[in-house]
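Regression test attached.
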Amino acid sequence: MKVPHLRDLQKLKTEGEKLLRPRTLRIQVGAAPCAIAKGAREVITKLRDELSQQKVDATIISVGCIGICYEEPIVEVATPGKPKLTYGRITPEQVTSLVKAIAKGSVYKQHLLYRTDEEEIICTGKTFSYTSKTQPDLKKIPTKKEFKFFKPQLRMVLRNAGLINPACIEEYCARGGYAALYKALTKMTPDKIIDEVTKSGLRGRGGGGFPTGLKWKTCREAKGKEKYVLCNCSEGDPGIGMHKSLIESDPHSILEGMIIGGYAIGAHEGYIYLHHGNPSAKEKLRQAIEQATAYGFLGVNIFNSGFSFSITLKEGAGGYVCGESTALMASLEGRAGEPRPKYIHSVEKGLWNNPTNLNNVETWCNVPLIISRGSTWYSKIGTTGSKGTKVISLSGHINKSCLVEVPMGTTLKEIITTLGGGIPKGSTLKAIQIGGPPAGVLPASLADTPLDFDELNKAGSLLGSGGMIVMDDKTCMVDMAKYFMTFLEEESCGRCVPCREGVKRMREILHGITTGIGSADDLTLLQQLSECLAKASLCDLGKSAPAIVRSTMHHFSEEYQTHIERQVCPVKRCPM
Amino acid sequence: MIALTIDDKKVKVEPGATILKAAREHGIEIPTLCHHEGLSPLANCRLCIVKITKNGRARVVTSCNYPVEESLTIETKTDAIVAIRKTIVELLVARSPNVKVIRELAQEMGVTAPRFSLENEKCILCGLCVQVCDEYVGARAITFSGRGTKKFVSAPLLHSAQDCIGCGACVEICPAQCITMQDSEDAKTLYPGGKEEVGPARLIHNWNVRVAWKKCKSCGTPFPPPSPMEYLSKGQPLSKDFFNLCEKCTH
C-alpha cells in the first residue's frame, strides 16, 4: 500500500492510533537488550499463559528501551479510559498476581512505578490523554512527569522508544512519523531544509560536534556525479549501548532523517553502516527498510515529489576504527577498514570519491523533529553552543545504570545523582569518563561541568558518543588508563607508526607501572609518546589515544607516583 | 604559480604539488621512509611531518600528501617537529633494530638506544611492496593481513600469491630489503595431486610464489620477468607488452 498523498499518510496514522489505543487492554513489555538479558522473553510467555488462563482479553506488544534498566523487566498496562500503569521488576513469578489485579481492574501496588495520564507527541506538540477523569485511588502514585527518572529528561531522540512497537510502521506514523518527510518533500526546498538545520544549531552527535547544517551545505555544493548519505551506527566504545537501543526501539526515525537529508543534499542513495555481531539491530533495521519501501517512503517518487531514495544496510566486520568516517567508507567500499588522511574532506571526496555526508545515528534522529517543530523551537533547548539533547548511557559504580536523554547543559553531577541514584553507599565519586576511549577522564572536582561540546573540551574531555562511566574511590586510575590503552592497541588499524607502535609501548609502560617496575623516566616517556601520537598520527584514533593517559597523569599524578616510588597501588587493585 | 614560505624562504610552486615536492625542489630536505616518487603518497611512516600555519592557525601535517596552498607558511625543522620525528624513529628502531635503513635513520636523527623492549621484525610495514604491485605493476598480488601491531604483508588469504608475475618490484622497492627472490633454471615444483613441473622459474619466498619463466612473445625463448623499477623511477608508465618481451626483443 503506497502513500503518495497526505490522505494516505493520514489513513496510516489512523490505523496506527487504533493499534496504540485499542478498545481492549494493551500490555507493553520492554524488550530492549537489557530487558531481554533480565528475562523479558520469559515474562512475555508467562503473561500470555496467565492472560489466557484468567480469560483476560489483551494484546501484548514488545516495545523498545524505556531506559529504566534497573527496573527491568518492565510491564505497562493500558486499560482504555484509565491512566497507563507502569510496573517494574516483573519476573515470571509476579505475573500471576499482576494479571489477577488487571482482571479485577485494580492495581498491583508492590511493583507500581508510576502512572501516565497523558503523553506528549513531541513531533506534533500535541498531547494524548489516557484518561479524562481523575482517578482517586491512583492520586498517590507519581505521574510519569513527576517520576524521578523522567523529571530531568527530555526525550526527543528517544521520542518513541518504549512507547511504540518498533516493528510497526503504523504506530510510528500515529506518533507523527513521516509527517516531517511529507513536509520536507512537498513544502520545502533543499536550501530551506539546510537553512532550518543550520539555524537549529544541531551539531554532530558522533563525537566531532561539527555543525550539521554546514556539513550538509558543503556536501550539497560539492561537485560530483553521485552523492551519498551515510549513517554511522558502528558504536564500538566498550560498555555502552546507545545505538543498539535507539535502533531497536525506533528504527523508522533513522530512516526518516536520512531521506530528508538525502533530499536536502541531492543524494539518492543512503547506507546504514552497522557493526557485525548485532543481529537484533540488523533485523529491526532490515524490517523497517522493507516496511518503508512497501509504503513508498523509500523508493521512486516519494509522496509524488519526484524525489527517489533508497537505503541499504551494510555490516562491517567489527573494527572500532571503522567508526572513523574514512575507515567506515573504506569498509563500505569493500576494502580494509583503514582511515585515510583527511586533507580533502569526505563531503567533497568520500565514498568512491563522491561527495558523501556521514552523520551519526543520533544526529539523524534529530532531523525529523527539527523539520516538524522548526529550528526556532529546537534552538530554545540546550545551551548557547550546544543545542538540543544528548542520549547518555550511564554505567559504572552507580546505583542505577540507565539510558537517558537530557537537554544539553545538564551537569554531569545532576545525571549521576538524580538519574543514576548516586554512588553506592560506602564509596565516593572519584572520576567520570565520558566520550569513550578518545576522551580524557574528569576528576570528581569537575562533576559540575555541563553537557556541552565546548565546556567538556575546555575541561579536557569530550562529549563523544555519550557513554558515561562513573568511577568510585576504589578505582585505580593507572589500571584504568592501562585498560583503555589495551583496548586501543587491539583496535589500532596499524597503518601509521605513531599509533601502531606508540599505543603498544604506552600500554607496556603502564603495565610496568602497575606491576611494580615503573620508573620516573616512564612518566617522561609517556609524555613524549603522547605528544608524538597527538600530533603525528594519521587519524583521530591515534591523535586522541593519549587523552586518557594525559588526563590521568594530570589529575591523578600522586597515584602514578605511589605506584612508581613505593611499588604500591593505593586501592590495592594492581598486582604488586 | 602558488606563493608560499618554507623555512623562511619565499618560494613559488606549481599548483597541485605537495609540500614535500616543493621543499625538495628548493633544496630543503625532509626525511621520508615510505615515500617513492613514482607512487601516490602512503603517509604511513609520518616522518615527513611539518608545521604549517595559515590564517593564524597552526597544524602538523605530513608533507608527502598535503597540497600546496597560497600564502601557506611551512616550517620543516622546528624543535617540536624534530622531537616527534626522533620518537617515531625510536619506535621504529625498537621494532626493527637489525634493519639497515632503520639503523641509518637512527644515526641521522641521533637516536641511540631505544627506551623500549627490542623486537626483531624484518618488515617495517611501510606498505611500498603492496602499493607498487597494486598501483604500478597492476598485478595486485599481495596485501596486508591482520591489524595493528599484528599486521603483516602476505599473499591473499595466506596462500600463494596466484596473481604474482614475478617482476620483483616488491623486492627492489623494499627499504628493509626483507623480500627475497631467486631464479632457478631447473626448479622443480610438486602440485597437490601429484603433478610435477620442472623448468626455469622465479621463486619469491615471502609470497610462496613460483612463477615459471614466460616464453618471449617475439622470439619464443623463456626469460626471467623484467624489472619495472627503472621506468617507475622515471615516472613513465609500462608499455603494454613490457612483461611479454625478453630483453633482446625489447630493444
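Expected vs. actual: identical. Chain A touches chain B at residues 319, 336, 341, 343, 489-498, 500-502, 504-505, 508, 521, 525, 528-529, 531-532, 535-538 (CB under 8 Å).
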